[in-house]
Amino acid sequence: MSLDEIAIRPFTSADIKLSNVLPIRYPQSFFLQLLLLPARICLVAYPRSDPQNLIGFISAAYSPEPPTDAKIPRIEILTLGVAPSYRHRGLARRLIRSIPQHLCASHSIFFQANVATSNTSALKFYEQLGFRIASDVITNLYRTTSSSKDGYLIVGCINSD
């Protein structure tokens, strides 16, 4: 399946029961919180032929107005996941690039995210997007996981197009 056959739309409450593409299983309350809190954007990807089959998810927090000390808007990626059979096809990159489009941004966007120190595939992915590690190891960042609990802050700019 090509990326042209995949659509992206805002996440809705009807999608909560379908949200199984993230590597960590989150409770329904997590998704409800994302829908209810202001300044959150959540997008899902699905095959155009099967809108109920969610194959990608991204959530992010944003500031409608950039802080006075920032020249460009800032977005924090909270969660990003792609179903295993759809990985390595550019879908995660497309989900990230869809955020500025859904916010009607017409300029560069500063992104930040936290990544577990042991998640080498995510670190490589973000590096390919032009992101860099911007912190020392943050100890015990992930308190609820059974694997590595340490993480990094990564940052990068993406031009909306």
Layout of strands and helices, then pairs:
Blueprint lengths: L5 E5 L17 H9 L3 E8 L8 E7 L11 E9 L8 H12 L5 E9 L3 H9 L3 E2 L17 E9 L2
Parallel strand pairs: 4-5
Antiparallel strand pairs: 1-2, 2-3, 3-4, 5-7, 6-7
Q: What's the CATH superfamily, by name?
A: Gcn5-related N-acetyltransferase (GNAT)
- Give the rounded overall mean pLDDT: 85
CATH top level label: Alpha Beta
Q: What kind of oligomer do you see?
A: single chain
Unreliable residue stretches? none
* Largest β sheet strand count, sense and barrel closure: 7 strands, mixed
Number of helices: 3
Main sheet strand line-up: 1-2-3-4-5-7-6
The helix-strand sequence is EHEEEHEHEE
Strand-pairing-aware structural class: alpha+beta
Quote the beta fraction: 25-35%
> What is the rounded distance between the termini?
23 Å
Q: What is the CATH fold-level name?
A: Aminopeptidase
CATH architecture: 3-Layer(aba) Sandwich
- Count of the separate structural domains: 1
**Helix content bin:** 10-25%
Shape: globular
Q: How would you describe the overall organization of this protein?
A:
This protein has 161 residues and is α+β, with helices and mostly antiparallel strands. The chain has one domain (3-159): 3-Layer(aba) Sandwich (Aminopeptidase), CATH 3.40.630.30. Helix content is 19%, strand content 30%. It has helices at 28-36, 91-102, 120-128, and strands at residues 6-10, 40-47, 56-62, 74-82, 108-116, 132-133, 151-159.
